[in-house]
């Protein structure tokens, strides 16, 4: 059974919940930048989310949600990687804090680019979307993707480069005042 929240804490809890919902996808993206394996990143995101919900009482709205959440995410990423016996290189805490500030300051532009990217990926041919999904979501190696799609590793590299170029042009058009084409 969850503890009840008295009147004084109800407003603070509501503020925390609103901030979590607004920034959830940005936090997920941040965790993905810390932990490169998609499945591991999802695990770290879930652990971070649980930790944030457990510690909602320590949320200080005046300080801002994202700096607090990013700090928790860094701790959870380091803890998870240590548990897995992995020594993934992470930036120093000072560098991460500088990166956090840049992400927070450019949040709207980043959100616009992510929305444009999603739109442009959805416009790709099914085979190209499947290749990207295999490489980026399922974390397949180039060799595994080549076997799956009946290509050589070199052909995979060339196709991915071409897809990235298509996406880059599409995103630029999406973000320009007049554009919406692939």
TrEMBL record:
Protein name according to UniProt: RNA polymerase subunit sigma-70
Any GO MF annotation of the entry: sigma factor activity
The entry's keywords: Sigma factor, Transcription, Transcription regulation
Origin: domain of life: Bacteria
Domain PucR C-terminal helix-turn-helix: 131-172
Organism name: Blastopirellula marina
Pfam families per record: HTH_30, Sigma70_r2
Organism ancestry: Bacteria, Pseudomonadati, Planctomycetota, Planctomycetia, Pirellulales
Entry keyword annotation includes Nuclease: no
Gene Ontology process terms (BP): DNA-templated transcription initiation
Family that this chain belongs to: Belongs to the sigma-70 factor family. ECF subfamily.
Residue ranges of domain RNA polymerase sigma-70 region in the record: 23-87
Transcription regulation in keyword set: yes
InterPro entries the record matches: PucR_C-HTH_dom, RNA_pol_sigma-70-like, RNA_pol_sigma-70_dom, RNA_pol_sigma70_ECF_RHOBA, RNA_pol_sigma70_r2, RNA_pol_sigma_r2, RNA_pol_sigma_r3/r4-like, WH-like_DNA-bd_sf
């Amino acid at each position: 059974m969850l503890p009840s929240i008295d009147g004084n804490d109800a407003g603070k809890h509501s503020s925390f919940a609103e901030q979590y919902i607004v920034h959830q996808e940005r936090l997920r993206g941040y965790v993905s930048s810390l932990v490169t394996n998609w499945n591991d990143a999802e695990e770290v995101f879930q652990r971070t989310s649980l930790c944030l919900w457990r510690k909602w009482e320590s949320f200080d709205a005046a300080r801002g949600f994202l700096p607090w959440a990013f700090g928790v995410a860094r701790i959870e990423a380091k803890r998870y990687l240590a548990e897995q016996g992995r020594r993934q290189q992470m930036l120093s805490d000072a560098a991460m804090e500088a990166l956090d500030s840049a992400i927070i300051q450019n949040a709207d532009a980043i959100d616009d680019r992510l929305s444009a990217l999603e739109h442009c990926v959805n416009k790709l041919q099914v085979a190209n979307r499947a290749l990207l999904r295999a490489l980026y979501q399922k974390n397949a190696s180039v060799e595994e993707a080549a076997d799956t799609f009946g290509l050589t590793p070199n052909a995979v590299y060339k196709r991915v480069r071409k897809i990235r170029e298509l996406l880059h042009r599409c995103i630029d058009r999406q973000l320009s005042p007049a554009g919406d084409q692939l």
